Amino acid sequence: MIMYQIIFSFHSIIRWLLVLGLIGTIMVFATNRNNEKPAFKLGDIFKSTTVSFAHIQLILGYYLYFESPMVKYFRANIKEGLAIPEMTFFGLYHVIMMTIAVFVLTIGSSIIKRTQTYELKRKYVLIYFGIVILIIFLAVPWPFSPFISRPYYRSF
Questions:
Q1: Structural domain boundaries of the chain?
Q2: Membrane-spanning regions, if any (predicted)?
Q3: Are the beta carbons of 50 and 22 closer than 8 angstroms?
Q4: Per-residue pLDDT tens over the stretch 29-46
Q5: Is the dihedral of CA 37, 40, 46, 50 positive or negative?
Q6: Longest dimension (CA), the chain
Q7: pTM for the full model?
Q8: 56/54 Cα distance (integer angstroms)
């Protein structure tokens, strides 16, 4: 259970790094309209780092999904679990939406990497990363979420 708590805390920390990376990448590409080389390089660094954070977050999330006592109960008793909003959120919606978000981010990043012109890269970053940030904001249990709420940070 100690390992679960540690990974849970890292999952909470990396959530913020991922959100900051998504916002940072969008801002760098949105504000650089002149194809300036330093900003172009910075955008690529932000993009690659953000995708790496997303993959780490997904791996940690899958570990938590398969080890969570709540999700274990949900999977063993799906009919009863679906009647409890918190269990439905973590047992079903959260994992599906986050997997989709990382899938879209990975595909988008791959397309962006192979795109030749900066203007098209910029357009694809705004589209793909914008979709991902929307999915993540809907799927994270923020304190203000109408679905399920959790604190901004979960400590050890």
A1: 2-139
A2: 6-30, 92-112, 124-144
A3: yes
A4: 888 776 666 667 888 899
A5: negative
A6: 56
A7: 0.89
A8: 5
